Amino acid sequence: MTYDILILGGGPGGYVAAIKAAQLGYQVGLVEKNALGGVCLNEGCIPTKTLLKNAKVYRLMKHASAYGIHIDDSAVTFNWTDMLSRKNKVIKTLTDGVKGLLKKNGVTVHNGYGEVLNPTTVKVGDETLATKYLILATGASPVIPNIPGLKEGFERQFVYTYSSLLNYPNVPASLTIIGGGVIGLEFATLFSSFGTKVTVIERLDQILSAVDDDVRQAYLRLLKKEKIEVITGASVTEIQTDAVVYEHQGSSKSIQSDIVLLSVGMKPNLEAFKALNLETTKQGVVVNAHLQTNIPNVYAIGDITGKMMLAHAASAEGVTAVEHISGKDVSFSFDHVPSAIYGFPEIAWIGLTEAAAKADNIPYKTSKFPLMANGRSLAEGETDGFVKVVVHPDTGEIIGAHILASNASDLLAEVVLAIKSEATIADVANAIHLHPTVSETVMESALGAIHKHIHI
Ligand code: NAI
């Protein structure tokens, strides 16, 4: 049999593309060498969010007295093994769910490593699969830089990646994180919640380089309050038996810790389809706006394009690719992809930062509304953060939105919809928001952009 569409990789890019393709009536095959759901479901987004919820419960109990509930501090304990099993249960429920969805939609799953022989043929073990269209969705793996002692550090189980750290058998007393990006900071606030002494070592002059400056400054203050140490402008030179050695401001320093997390970026997995000789850049596979590679029947989606290594971007790209195959004139816009950093609190954003708007000479004005001035945030006892919008001063176009809040990732959704549907900041300001909700901070920030805030 020849498939209409064969998909390589069963992560959020691949499995969503497979379901969409089956819903459109295609004969669909999906090749996956590990568990369905990819990094996101098995060792990324979902397990970390599960553990962050555990941490949230623990933090709340530790601060229960602020809510008039008094618990003897020594009575609040945690069991990391139980937390890991909760995480594993959540993963199992979701991966079983994906398996069920694929089956229900008639997608044939091939378990095994798929090697692409040519644009219409993929080998999986002893089987050779033929297809009219091929969608590559093989994801990305951690970058492992060439640092002396790093390889040995991994072998000695002193150094971990996000994946292996998720199964570390206990909460370390101290953790050094190399790389102050999305993964590094998420794990920093996770482990610090359970009492781990966390130090983040970042090569650049600032952590979270993609984040708006106001958000970063406020976040840094919160990290300091949390006693998470951040060392920027530091270049790691060696991994020793129990220490990370780094150059900082002209001198060599070292920091000892129980373990180390290496989170210095991800690189696309290109190995399985190297026979295709696709056009690539340092970032990843080159695709057009329809996610087509330079071979017209071969599409590439998700992390392998290196554009936005985000699960939701991969899923949306998968849908675009399939719809394009079906003859629809659809394009993918990276301008509409939101980002988030989970942890305590969360950071979420879409569009340009204020600094980027300035650098691009785009006329803009900003408006900011603090959670402290929002009734619901006060009632919740979660007042850290703000909503900031960057808008065009004449047209009211929303150029960017940046939220620091305990539930920033949920709050951002209405701005994503506003941008996608080309609503202006006045539309957001004039939309009636439920009272009392934290979402009113988005409306207030919009009100500040069109005239004045009501509540400050
Ligand atoms: P990242 O690109 O976010 O951050 C890596 C950081 O490490 C950068 O700040 C970089 O300057 C620094 N760095 C690089 N080499 C270094 C060195 N030798 N020493 C010290 N610092 C060094 O990469 P990260 O955090 O590994 O995440 C990888 C990808 O996964 C990202 O593209 C991200 O979009 C995605 N992801 C997204 C999540 C989310 O949406 N919440 C969660 C987890 C991952």
UniProtKB/TrEMBL annotation:
Source species, domain of life: Bacteria
Cofactor(s) in the UniProt record: FAD
Subcellular location: Cytoplasm
Main location, first listed in the record: cytoplasm
Coiled coil: none
UniProt keyword annotation of Mitochondrion present: no
InterPro entries to which the protein is assigned, alphabetical: Class-I_Pyr_Nuc-Dis_Oxidored (IPR050151), FAD/NAD-bd_sf (IPR036188), FAD/NAD-binding_dom (IPR023753), FAD/NAD-linked_Rdtase_dimer_sf (IPR016156), Lipoamide_DH (IPR006258), Pyr_nuc-diS_OxRdtase (IPR001100), Pyr_nucl-diS_OxRdtase_dimer (IPR004099), Pyr_OxRdtase_I_AS (IPR012999)
Keyword tags: Cytoplasm, Disulfide bond, FAD, Flavoprotein, NAD, Oxidoreductase, Redox-active center
Residue ranges of domain FAD/NAD(P)-binding in the record: 3-318
Span of domain Pyridine nucleotide-disulphide oxidoreductase dimerisation: 337-445
Cofactor binding annotation: Binds 1 FAD per subunit.
This enzyme's EC code(s): 1.8.1.4
Catalytic reaction list: N(6)-[(R)-dihydrolipoyl]-L-lysyl-[protein] + NAD(+) = N(6)-[(R)-lipoyl]-L-lysyl-[protein] + NADH + H(+)
NCBIfam families the record matches: lipoamide_DH (TIGR01350)
Protein name per the record: Dihydrolipoyl dehydrogenase
Lineage, highest ranks first: Bacteria, Bacillati, Mycoplasmatota, Mollicutes, Acholeplasmatales
